[in-house]
Amino acid sequence: MKLKKILTMGLSLSLLAGIAAGCQSVAAGDTTANTSGQAGTAADASQADASGDVTWSENLLDPENPVTVKFYSYSYASPAFGTGFQTMMDNFNNGVGKEKGVILEFVADDTGTKAETDVKAGQQVDIVQAYFAGIDGDRDTLGISAFEDVFPQEELDAHFEGIPENCLNLGKVDDKMYGLAFTFSTPMLYINGDLLEQAGIDPTQAPADWDELYDWCVQIKEATGKYGLALSPSNSTGWVTDSILYSNGAKVLNDDRTAVEFASEKGIQAFETWKKFYTDGVAVGGTDTEAMQAFASGEAAMHIQSTSVYTSFVSAAETAGWTLYGYPMPGFNGQASVPTNSGSAIVVRPDSEQKAQAIWEVIKYVTGDEGYTIITSEIGYLPLRPYLAEDENYLKDFVDANPIIAANIERLADVQPATIWPGDHAAELTTLYADMSTKALTTDADVAQTLQEYQDQMNQYIQQ
Predict the structure, then answer these.
(1) Are the folds of 13-19+188-340+423-462 and 31-184+343-414 the same?
(2) Phi, psi at residue 77, to the nearest 5°?
(3) Cα angle 426, 42, 91; round to 5
């Protein structure tokens, strides 16, 4: 797929480290302004019967007596993303919130653990920006509710119109939506066009597959002395690893999520192809931050990452005087890749029907037309509503000027869920998955043996 040269935008390169950590944790102070409110758990609310048949007989919101909704967010804590979230909060509170009687209060949760701590302390926690990988465990640790169990189905159906069905499935566990996809991207291949041209490679054409990507990396290293690719083996929660495995026909979990299956023949093949980049010295790994900085500084010619870093790379290219290009991550054997989702989902824990109504007003705004216009244009994540890219009142001008965003939006229809680890051991499983990738890819360990070793360890956790 050919893309136009990426046009310019502005965001300081100094935010790169903050953006990288934003996918996991970005250091920031607690910006909570109001700690008052009703404490409780989602289980206390139970407006729904076992079938999830929820009805709201009356409007319980009153503009004269507004309800505060506390939304715990790691993005709000980020220097790179916080401004966009502040804009959403201000716009909501001065508009829909004032009209309906709802006050949105973002709470900075830089490490993603403050919400759990405050839940245990009996504090008010209404909405959490959660990592997809841990949603199943959040049912116990945070006491989150399925959307079908706290919001009327007709409300869900009306609001979800225009959102691709596969995107609505990204946060489902046991056939219920425990997380609504919020801020996310698909894996994109960023390219320093000048380094490719120095190596005799046309940067206006994407590599056909991982084999051609490898050949390019060898050619770049020989011609320029720079790394061909920068990619963290652990890549945050492993969402790129998921995509690489899926793209070669492998699975991470079996269909009923009762066992890990990545140590298959196709999984081993995918890792062996990927490992060549590191063992042959044509790729640099490290952490996400280190990989991003290697690309932004010109030490690596290509990088696989989400569009949350897009504006920073544009700024880096402008400052250094090179041309930035971007394409979807390649697949294997000439086939398109299977994209997975990075980023976060919205999870909820209302403690009353009134709170559920207030939370729903917030969700409708932040995942509505105006909310996603802010999220995409100010941060770079995908709009869950692709029609906004064609609407002049929202994202058309922005998308037309930034074709890598357009290419990312085109992948929405093909997105498959990044792994949601089962049960109470999501944190341990996420860590083991990252450790497996690092050991298999960057050490002398045998790939097949390493994948099998970690698969066995992880299955012991799952089967406990």
Answers:
(1) yes
(2) -80, -15
(3) 95
- The CATH code for residues 13-19+188-340+423-462 is 3.40.190.10
Judged against a pLDDT cut of 80, whether residue 16 lies above it is answered with no
Tokens for 288, please give them.
Answer: 């996400």
* Average pLDDT score, the chain: 90
Check whether 459 has a pLDDT greater than 70. Answer: yes
| 215 and 325 Cβ atoms separated by less than 8 Å | no
One-letter amino acid identity for 48?
A: A
165 sits in which H/E element = helix 165-168
Q: Tokens for 209?
A: 């597959």
Tokens read off for 382: 């995908």
Length of the chain: 464
Say how far apart CA 6 and CA 326 lie, in whole Å: 7
Residue appearing with tokens 């009353």:
352
CA–CA distance, 433 with 426 (Å, rounded to integer): 10
C-alpha closest to that of 377 among 72, 5, 9? 9
Mean pLDDT of 428-438: 97
> In whole angstroms, what is the distance from residue 418 CA to residue 380 CA?
19
236: pLDDT confidence band, cut at 50, 70 and 90? confident
At 52 the pLDDT is 55
- In angstroms, the CA 97 to CA 464 distance is 45
Quote the pTM value. 0.88
Distance set, CA 447 to CA 120, 239, 280 (Å): 41, 19, 15
Q: Please tell me what DSSP assigns to residue 260.
A: B
What single-letter amino acid sits at 323? T
- How does pLDDT run across 309-352, given as a tens digit for each residue? 998 999 999 999 999 999 999 999 999 999 999 999 999 999 99
**Nearest alpha-carbon partner for 104 in 118, 89, 120:** 89
Q: Residue 438: how many CB atoms within 10 A of its CB?
A: 17
Q: Which two tokens stand for residue 165?
A: 């069905």
CA 451, CA 240: separation in Å to the nearest integer? 16
Give the burial string for 198-215 (b: 16+ CB within 10 Å, else e).
ebebebeebbebbeebbe
User: Which CATH number does 31-184+343-414 carry?
Assistant: 3.40.190.10
Residue 49 has pLDDT above 50, yes or no: no
Domain definitions of the chain by residue range: 13-19+188-340+423-462, 31-184+343-414
Among 296, 248, 244, CA closest to 419: 244
Residue type, 142: L
